[in-house]
Amino acid sequence: MKSFPISVIALIFLSLTAIIAQAEAPEEKSLVPLKAIAVLHPTQDNKVSGTVMFTEVADGVQVHAEITGLTPGKHGFHVHEFGDCAAADANSAGAHFNPTKQPHAAPDATARHVGDMGNIEADTSGAAKLDYLDHNMSLSNDDRSIIGRSVVVHAKADDLKSQPAGDSGARVACGVIGRAKSQ
Ligand SMILES: [Cu+2]
Ligand SMILES: [Zn+2]
User: Fold this and answer.
1) Using CB atoms within 10 A of its CB, is residue 130 exposed (0-12), middle (13-18) or buried (19+)?
2) Residue 32 near residue 52, CB atoms below 8 Å
3) d(CA 117, CA 151)
4) What do you get for the CA distance between the two ends of the chain, in Å?
5) Active site annotation includes 80
6) Which of 40, 89, 169, 173 could bridge 155 with an S-S bond, Cβ 3.0-4.6 Å?
7) Residue 16 C-alpha to ligand 2 middle, in angstroms?
8) 16, 155 Cβ separation under 8 angstroms
9) Is pLDDT at 47 greater than 70 in this prediction?
């Protein structure tokens, strides 16, 4: 029975390694929330710019947008499927990000495009701010992740029902969504 103590030692060692690994993994996730950012640039003949911050929280993604250079009133505001703002009219960004194959709708609808963030409303100076908690999108490595896609702002209001994109007109600004420094 010479091998018995060696097996016991090996078992204790393996258990300790597993316990340490388990203890470290969740701690890292809760202390460092995932963040993403899109810096919006105007399309041709427009002057709309701004930033959109995305922060992963317990029950969704907190969206914080600050945009300037708009005409007063509501403007369609979406995540589009491609992180490609290269075209002068931003049509290279493609359609609304829709990995779950749902119809276009309002951000608070049960069935909607993951990219449906609704509208942002500009004041008389053309500045708009938006803060809301989104329950559809994700920043993690899954099919609802918006990382590497784009934010597009439109010339007109999103009516939140017309298919496939809310009839919100031309694209006035576009920005690619990338990983931001988490802190
Ligand atoms: Cu759009
Ligand atoms: Zn949509």
Assistant:
1) middle
2) no
3) 10
4) 54
5) yes
6) 169
7) 49
8) no
9) yes
Q: Is the model's pLDDT at 27 over the cut of 70?
A: no
Residue 128: band (very low, low, confident or very high) from pLDDT cuts 50, 70, 90 = very high
In angstroms, what CA-CA distances link 84 with 24, 64, 80, 91? Answer: 37, 21, 9, 9
Q: What is the 150 CA–ligand 2 centroid distance (Å)?
A: 13
d(C-alpha 67, C-alpha 52), whole Å: 8
Ligand lying closest to the C-alpha of residue 96? 2
Distance CA 154, CA 173 (A): 7
Percent over 70 (pLDDT), the chain: 83
SS3 125: coil
CATH assignment of the domain containing 127: 2.60.40.200
Same domain, 111 and 23: no
Domain, as residue range, for 83: 35-179
Whether 93 and 11 map to the same domain: the answer is: no
For the stretch 138-169, pLDDT in tens is 999 799 999 999 999 999 999 999 999 999 99
Q: Decide if 78 is catalytic.
A: yes
Q: Does 171 qualify as catalytic in the annotation? A: yes
Q: Are residues 101 and 47 in the same domain?
A: yes
Q: Which two tokens stand for residue 60?
A: 């969704």
Same domain, 9 and 83: no
Q: In this structure, which ligand is nearest to the CA of 115?
A: 2
Q: Is 113 a catalytic residue?
A: yes
